[in-house]
Structure formats: C-alpha cells, structure tokens
Amino acid sequence: MSQITSEAVGSAAEALIARGEKPSVRKIREELGGGSPNAILPLLNAWRDSRQNAVVTVSAPLEEDIDLPPEAVRLLNDLRQSMASAMVTLLRTERANSITTQKSVQQDADARIARVQKEMDRRLADIEARAATQLQDARDEAQSLAEQLATAEADVGDLRARLQVAEERASAADADRRRSAELHAEQMRQIEAAHRAIDDDRRDQMMRLEAKLSAANQELRALKDSALGAEKR
Predict the structure, then answer these.
(1) What is the pTM of this model?
(2) CATH code of the region 1-55
(3) For the chain, what is the mean pLDDT?
C-alpha cells in the first residue's frame, strides 16, 4: 500500500464533499483503499484546519462611504471581530479535546493489551514448562526401561508393560503440548478480537468528535450569516 500523504487525504476529503458526504477517518480509509487511522487522523485534522482558517478569516472593515453612522460601523466591525475570535477559540478547544481523547483511548488500549499479553505469556510459559518437564521425564523413563529390557530378558513381560506405561505418559505429554499450542492459538484470536474492539471504540470516539466539529461549523455559519445580515441592514 502506498504511503498516506496529506495530498492524498485532502483529495479524498474533497472527493467525499463533492459527493455530498462528510469526511471521516473511516470514509477516508475506504476512499484510499486502506491506511492506518493513526496516520490519517492528523492529516485529516490539518485539512480541516486549512478549510476552517479560510472560513473564519475576518473580513475587511466596513467602508467609510457606507450610509451608516460612524459609531454603528465601529460596533459592527467590533462585533465581527469578536465573533471570529470566539469561533477560532472554540475550534481550537474542540481540536485540543479531540487530541486529548485520542491519546486517552490509545493509552487505555495499550494498557489493556499489555495486561492481556502479560497474562497470556505467563500462562503459556507455565504450560510449556510443565509439558517439557513431563516429556523429558517420560523420555528418560522410556530410555531407562529400554536399557533394562536389553539386560533383563527374563522379566521381559514386566518391562514391556512398564515401557508401554512410559510411552503412554510420553503420548500424554505430547497431547499436553498440542493443547498448549491450541491455547496459544485461542489467545491470539482473543488478542485480535481485542484489537477489533479497540478499533471499534476508537471509531465511535472519532464519530462523536466529528459530530461536535460539525456542530461547531454549523454554529460558525449561523454567526457569519447573522453578521452579514446585520451588515446588510
């Protein structure tokens, strides 16, 4: 997969807007055919900043020849400046909250995965140690019985019985080792399920944050429309 770039993310976002869709990390990934959410998110935020900066740019003061009292012109200009400043502050606050939330989710996910991995490693190591000890014991006993069989042919029946028991123990130890491998495979599936759950949580967080940013953009447009209406009056 090609490297995710700011140009690729910006083009994908513009394409989504052209189709009447709202850009999000999930939709950007679908548009690009993949990519890490952690790589896409900051580039998408930068693209949004560039668009928001263009929208929140403060317009020039009213011309002196407009048929309004000088005090009204000054008040309208001050109001427009205050609204633009307030919206810039709001957008910066929303962005800071988004970054803080993302870091918190990532830290929590890392801690959860570390705990699960540590517990799985401990259990796997314990099972493998027991299986290795049992297998070695069984092999040692089988070897000892084989040597006794070679030197004690008179008691061959008894020795064969004991050898069979040793082989059964070796088989049981080998079965334990297979169960250990199956447990490891199950644990890996649990890790993958945990990753998917974390990705789902992260997507939910991002969708809520995108909803907040959308609401902020709507409020900004409403304020600009109100200011333009005041200028026309």
Answers:
(1) 0.31
(2) 1.10.10
(3) 80
